[in-house]
């Protein structure tokens, strides 16, 4: 899910190199001040390379890869500052269509869960998608429809880094929906949450890398910043928190993949990953900007691309407080006799 994910034996190293090269080239040719929208040229190139539907089944036009490869693609996009709805399209919207046996074509998609009034807020990339997979409650279960964007009312919005986070409103009475089980919707929610944890971890690793490079290169009072104990403490705290968040996220992803997203402890593991990633962001953002000083907040410097992104993503699909409460709730339910098995499972 970060640079270290490439060492996973299940991930094709040549694929990792190709992903990194394509996204690095795009980053090098794109103006930093350009507004964030879905880059049609990049999307077309990624589609030709089989990366837009990397985890989709081959029978439906996907590349047949798994979640580890998808996590590497998501992380690489973060490292290179490439903003695109890769996760929303591939492992969320198109996955759900495949799961219910609906047809999947090549147009760009995102997904959202509507409330009983037919509204969803902060929907990623809705204003730039071609179609939106909408899910809404229907008694104890749900219904789902793959809807053209023009058939929905979309109010544009954005998150802290300018990515589209729009309000989507649908006339659910006029939609023809397919049945979707509550279990599948729970799986969708967990996938959404874990995608953001993967992105936050990639941002934290980038903050750490930039901080180490800057501290080694910048001299103050006749010696590198890295020689000052206070700076060493700031960097080591970033490293420790980033490693904890990454370990928790990788544990949740490993359990999800091994169990086909059905592990009994998966809800707890996802909550732990999101909680750890959320709290790690506070430390990494604070320490990173202390190390860099004013330069880290300038438009020209890349630090704020990762710090603001981590802050934005940690609050999506559940706040830090929400995930802390989920961890606490699971621990209380497990009780003193079951807590260790919950953690060690």
From TrEMBL:
**Domain Acyl-CoA dehydrogenase/oxidase C-terminal residue range list:** 196-314
Q: Which UniProt keywords apply?
A: FAD, Flavoprotein, Oxidoreductase
Q: Name the coenzymes or cofactors required.
A: FAD
InterPro entries in UniProt: AcylCo_DH-like_C, AcylCo_DH/oxidase_C, AcylCoA_DH/ox_N_sf, AcylCoA_DH/oxidase_NM_dom_sf
Q: Which GO terms describe its molecular function?
A: acyl-CoA dehydrogenase activity; flavin adenine dinucleotide binding
A Pfam family that the UniProt record links to this protein: Acyl-CoA_dh_1
Report the sequence similarity comment from the record. Belongs to the acyl-CoA dehydrogenase family.
Q: What is the protein name stated in its UniProt record?
A: Acyl-CoA dehydrogenase
């Amino acid at each position: 899910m970060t640079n270290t994910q490439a060492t996973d034996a299940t991930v094709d190293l040549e694929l990792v190199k190709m992903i990194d090269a394509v996204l690095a080239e795009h980053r090098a040719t794109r103006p930093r001040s350009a507004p964030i929208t879905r880059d049609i040229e990049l999307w077309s190139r990624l589609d030709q390379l089989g990366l837009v539907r990397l985890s989709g089944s081959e029978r439906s036009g996907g590349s047949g890869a798994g979640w580890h490869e998808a996590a590497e693609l998501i992380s690489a996009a973060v490292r290179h500052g490439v903003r695109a709805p890769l996760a929303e399209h591939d492992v969320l919207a198109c996955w759900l269509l495949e799961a219910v046996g609906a047809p999947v074509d090549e147009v760009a998609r995102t997904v959202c869960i509507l409330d009983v009034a037919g509204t969803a807020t902060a929907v990623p990339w809705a204003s730039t998608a071609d179609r939106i997979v909408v899910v809404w409650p229907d008694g104890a279960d749900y219904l789902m429809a793959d809807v053209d964007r023009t058939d929905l009312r979309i109010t544009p919005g954005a998150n802290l880094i300018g990515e589209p986070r729009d309000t989507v409103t649908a006339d659910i009475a006029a939609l023809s929906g397919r049945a979707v089980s509550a279990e599948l919707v729970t799986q969708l929610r967990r996938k959404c949450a874990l995608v953001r944890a993967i992105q936050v971890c990639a941002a934290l690793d980038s903050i750490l890398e930039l901080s180490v490079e800057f501290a080694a290169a910048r001299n103050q009072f006749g010696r590198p910043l890295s020689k000052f104990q206070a700076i060493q403490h700031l960097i080591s705290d970033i490293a420790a928190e980033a490693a904890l968040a990454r370990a928790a996220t990788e544990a949740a992803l490993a359990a999800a993949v091994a169990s086909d997203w059905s592990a009994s402890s998966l809800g707890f593991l996802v909550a732990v990953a999101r909680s750890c990633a959320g709290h790690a962001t506070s430390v990494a953002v604070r320490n990173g900007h202390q190390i860099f000083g004013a330069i880290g907040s300038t438009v020209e410097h890349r630090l704020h691309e990762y710090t603001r992104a981590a802050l934005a993503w940690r609050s999506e699909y559940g706040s830090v407080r929400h995930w802390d409460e989920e961890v606490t709730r699971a621990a209380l339910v497990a009780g003193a006799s079951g807590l260790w098995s919950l953690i060690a499972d």
